[in-house]
Amino acid sequence: MGMGMGMGMGMGCFLSRGKRRLLVMFCIFVVLLVEITSTTAGKSNSSSSSSSQTLEVQTQLKQLNKPALKSIKSPDGDVIDCIKITHQPAFDHPLLKNHTIQMTPNFHPEGVFGQNKASSKKKQGSSSRTITQMWHLNGRCPQGTIPVRRTKKDDLLRASSIKAFGKKKHRSIPQPRSADPDLISQSGHQHAIAYVDGDKYYGAKATINVWEPKIQQPNEFSLSQIWILGGSFGEDLNSIEAGWQVSPDLYGDNRTRLFTYWTSDAYQATGCYNLLCSGFIQINNEIAMGASIYPLSGYHGSQYDISILVWKDPKEGNWWMQFGNNFVLGYWPGFLFSYLSDSASMIEWGGEVVNSESDGQHTTTQMGSGHFPNEGFGKASYFKNIQIVDGSNNLRVPKGIDTFTEQSNCYDVQLGKGGNWGNYFYYGGPGRNPDCP
Predict the structure, then answer these.
(1) In a 10 Å sphere around its CB, with 0-12 CB exposed, 13-18 middle and 19+ buried, how is residue 324 labelled?
(2) Among 154, 167, 321, 335, which residue's Cβ finds the most Cβ atoms within 10 Å?
(3) Distance between CA atoms of residues 324 and 337, nearest Å
(4) pLDDT grade for 49, boundaries at 50, 70 and 90
């Protein structure tokens, strides 16, 4: 085009002034047209990538949010959809297409009901008031449906990718017996846990004090949970997890929420939180996974706790979950797992936080109540009545309980035993402080 323009300008010497002006204007027009065309092409590329992301988001939302028979707006901003039990995300799994829902477990662990009554007695003025979920204030789901927290567009856009939404990052499991502590903490996850290993376990139970720990960065979280683990800590780790968490990235706020998690390959391709993929089959119409827990414990104030039991049905091989004394929530089908299709080899109870060290210092994200175990009841968070389910489907006191924390100056754990609390421990901490810079 440069040569053409040169020739045109050369010819201009033999043209009248008016014609030369027209020729110059024509050349300018051609240059502008080329620039506009290339700019439009650039915009169209970026808008096509944006529209492809929009399509991906819409597809995922349609996959997650099944048609609702009734929707309840919770005071905390959540929308809870009551969906038909047969329409839940679990049944998107190819191996669950013709699955017959098991509406009740064949067996409860022996001793579960007696122990529940014992664990609900008061200690040191502890409150045993009923814990519920905030959405209950505005309605309930009818029989034959399950309550599902609606996923919003913003929830997906906060994730590092649409594919990563609802998943934990690889290598976030506490490995108490690891020879290299640096290897553990480089994942940015820190823990304060009690654990047992070296036997076959068919379930675990605990009553967990519920708080609202402060989170420093939106990409950090704080949780308190039970881990039921099978296999090695390599690429094939099986894990079932349940407890409460505060996770701004996942939920878009700082509320304390009930959650579950599962994976059969160490958080790589399988598993997710709550009902954010096919896996867990919910049968209960009263408790919503991922919904906020209400009320919460206060420092020097009333104390609230939740009881969680996870156990393997000896007949069907499914792993069941119970919340409180009355709510059997549902089950993870045994075929989802390799090692856990037989039994667990390790049980862990305790807290976990993400420490992203965003400003080169330890995070101020709190674990538990944000106070150290030595402060005790009403100030530090606790797990009480910790138990395992043995091969005879009995709830038992765990033998050989040990503890683990990466940096006890940041978050710590202290075991105790006695009275109505059975085996218990206090755990947690403030994160950054003069001894944890």
Answers:
(1) buried
(2) 321
(3) 26
(4) low
Q: What is the DSSP letter of 288?
A: -
Of the given ranges (184-198, 289-303, 318-332, 410-424), which has the lowest mean pLDDT?
184-198
pTM of the model: 0.84
Rounded to an integer, what distance in angstroms lies between the CA atom of residue 32 and that of residue 27? 9
Burial of 177 (0-12, 13-18, 19+ CB in 10 A): exposed
> Where does residue 360 fall: left (phi above 0), alpha (psi -120 to 50 degrees), or beta otherwise?
left
The per-residue pLDDT for range 183-206, each reduced to its tens digit, is: 444 468 999 999 999 999 999 999
- d(Cα 41, Cα 200) in Å, to the nearest integer? 62
Rounded to an integer, what distance in angstroms lies between the CA atom of residue 208 and that of residue 125? 16
Average pLDDT of the chain? Answer: 87
Give the phi and the psi of residue 426 in degrees, each rounded to 5.
Answer: -100, 150
User: Checking DSSP bridges between strand 305-312 and strand 145-149, what pairing results, if any?
Assistant: unpaired
Q: pLDDT class for 50, splitting at 50, 70, 90?
A: confident
Q: Please report the sign of the dihedral spanned by the C-alpha atoms of residue 200, residue 408, residue 355, residue 76.
A: positive
352, 357, 375, 406: the active-site residue: 352
Q: Are strands 293-294 and 132-133 parallel, antiparallel or unpaired?
A: antiparallel
Name residue 193's beta-bridge partners. Answer: 350, 404
pLDDT in tens, 322-379: 999 889 999 999 999 999 999 999 999 999 999 999 888 999 999 999 999 999 999 9
375 is catalytic: no
Question: In this model, does residue 41 exceed pLDDT 60?
Answer: no
Tell me the H-state helices in 170-314. Answer: 181-185, 248-251
What's the pLDDT at 233?
Answer: 80
Q: In the β-sheet with 145-149, what is the strand arrangement from edge to edge?
A: 70-73, 79-84, 145-149
Amino acid letter for position 56: E
- Residue identified by tokens 């290339």 is 38
C-alpha dist (Å) from residue 110 to 132, 296, 332, 384, 417: 26, 30, 20, 19, 22
Give me 416's structure tokens: 């105790």
Cα–Cα dist 365/371, whole Å = 11
For the chain, the C-alpha Rg in angstroms (whole number) is 28
The DSSP line for 21-68 is HHHHHHHHHHHHHHHHHHHHHHHHHHHHHHHHHHHHHHHHHHHHSPPP
Q: Are 386 and 206 in contact (CB under 8 A)?
A: yes
352 has catalytic annotation: yes
Q: Which helix (H) or strand (E) holds 294?
A: strand 293-294
- Residue 187 structure tokens: 């994942």
